[in-house]
C-alpha cells in the first residue's frame, strides 16, 4: 500500500493548457515562430531563387525570437516581464550619490570624533564588543 500525502498546489501561477502541455501564450509563440520560418523559407526559395537547405541558418534566426519568447524564462519571469525591467536598469544612470553628514548634525549620544574615552576603550576590549550597538543604550555589560 502506497503512502499518500495531500499537497497544496500554488494556483497563482497556473496557466490553462490548450494543446498538449502548451498554454495559449506558448502556442501563439510556437505558431508565430513556425510561420516566420515558413515565410523566411518562402522568401529564400521564391524571392532569392536559392535552395532552402543552403539558408537554414537565416531561417532559424527568423524564428528564434518567437521560440525564446515562448519557452525561455530568465529569473523565473516571462520575456514581457523581464524586458521592461532590463531596459529600466540599463537606462538608469547607475550612480549612487554619497552625501556625508555634517559634524554639527550628529544625534545626541553618538560618539564624538577624537580620542575615545576610558569607558569606550574598555567596551572595545570586551569579548563580543562587535555586537555592541550604542543606539540601544545597553547598560551594565
TrEMBL record:
Membrane-spanning ranges: 27-46, 52-72
Alphabetically ordered keywords of this record: Membrane, Transmembrane, Transmembrane helix
InterPro entries noted in UniProt: Uncharacterised_PrgI
Record-linked Pfam families: PrgI
Disordered as annotated region, ranges: 105-141
Biased composition (Basic residues): 116-126
Protein's name in the database: PrgI family protein
